[in-house]
Amino acid sequence: MVEWTDKERSTVSAIWEKIDIDVIGPEALARVLIVYPWTERYFGTFGDIFSATAVLGNAKVAAHGKVVLKALDSAVKNMDNIKATYADLSRLHYEKLSVDPDNFKLLADCITIAVACKLKSALNPQAQATWQKFLSVVVDAMSSQYF
Amino acid sequence: MVEWSDFERATIQDIFSKMEYEVVGPAALSRCLVVYPWTQRYFGNFGNLYNAAAIIANPLVAKHGTTILHGLDRAVKNMDDIKATYAELSVLHSEKLHVDPDNFKLLSDCLTIVVAAKLGKAFTGDVQAAFQKFLAVVVSSLGMQYH
C-alpha cells in the first residue's frame, strides 16, 4: 500500500483546493490533444479537434475535460485506497474504451503542466514531487485492471 | 532529419532569448534532484543534498544547473543538426560520466515545468508542443552515442 506522510496529504489537498476543475480540466485535456495528436483517435465523436484553435474552442473537449478532472476528486478523498477507488474506471477504460494505458501518463503530465502554469512558484520542488507521486498512483490504479 | 515549422523555430528562439539562465537552470536541476532522488548519485561531490532545502540552497547545484541550461544554447542555434551538435556531449555522458540516458528525459520534464511556471498562460498548448519537441530531439541526440 502506498504510504503518505502528513505533509504529502496536506500538500495534495492544498493543491486540489487551489485548482478550478472547470478551468484546469479543459486545459489539461486540450494540451493532451495538441501536444500528443494521436490521442485524437479516442474522441472521434467530438467534431473538429484537428488544430490547436479547434481543440481550444471545442465545447465537447471542455465538457469532457471537466468530467475527467472531477474524477480525480475521488482519489484526493481516498488517498489510502486509490487502487480500489479506480478499479471500475480502469476496467471501463480497458474493456469498453480501449485506451492505451500509456496515455494516462501523458494526461497526468499535462495536468501537472496546467497546474504549474496556474500555481507558478507555489508549485515548488517538494510540492511537485508530492503531486507527481499522487498522479503516478492514480495512473497505476487506472492501469491496474488491464491484462 | 527533424522538420521544424516556422512557429516552432520562432517559439524556441523566443523562449531562449528571454531565458533567465541563472534562475531557470538551478530550478530545473534542483527539481530533478528533489523529485527523482536517485539522480543525486551523479553528484556525490556536491556536498549537502540531504533534503529539498539543502538541494535548493546548494551553490554547486545552482552553478551546474546554469551550465547545463547554457548547454542547450548550441541546440537553439543549430536546430537543423542537433544530433551532430551533441555527438561529443553524448559520448562524454556515456563513457565518462556513466549517466543513464533515461535521466535526460527526467531533466527535460523538470525544465518544462519550470518554464511553464514562469510563462504561465503564455505557455499555451502550441508552445508546450514546440518546447517538448525541441527537448525530445535534444534528449534523443544525447542518447545517440550510447552503446
From TrEMBL, chain A:
GO cellular component entries: blood microparticle; haptoglobin-hemoglobin complex; hemoglobin complex
Name of the molecule in the record: MN-Hbbeta3
Origin superkingdom: Eukaryota
Keyword entries, A-Z: Heme, Iron, Metal-binding, Oxygen transport, Transport
Biological processes, Gene Ontology terms: hydrogen peroxide catabolic process
Family according to the record: Belongs to the globin family.
Positions of the Globin domain: 3-147
PANTHER family membership: HEMOGLOBIN FAMILY MEMBER, HEMOGLOBIN, BETA ADULT 2
Keyword rRNA-binding listed: no
CDD domains with a match to the protein in the record: Hb-beta-like
Keyword Iron included in the entry's annotation: yes
One GO MF term attached to the UniProt entry: heme binding
InterPro entries for the chain: Globin, Globin-like_sf, Globin/Proto, Hemoglobin_b, Hemoglobin_oxygen_transport
Naturally occurring in which organism (per UniProt): Dicentrarchus labrax
TrEMBL record, chain B:
Any one Gene Ontology cellular component term annotated for this protein: blood microparticle
CDD domains (UniProt xref): Hb-beta-like
SUPFAM superfamilies per the UniProt record, alphabetical: Globin-like
Domain of life from the UniProt record: Eukaryota
Positions of the Globin domain: 3-147
Molecular function terms, GO-annotated: haptoglobin binding; heme binding; metal ion binding; organic acid binding; oxygen binding; oxygen carrier activity; peroxidase activity
Keyword annotations: Heme, Iron, Metal-binding, Oxygen transport, Transport
Pfam families in the cross-refs: Globin
GO biological process, one term: hydrogen peroxide catabolic process
Family: Belongs to the globin family.
UniProt protein name: MN-Hbbeta5
Native species: Dicentrarchus labrax
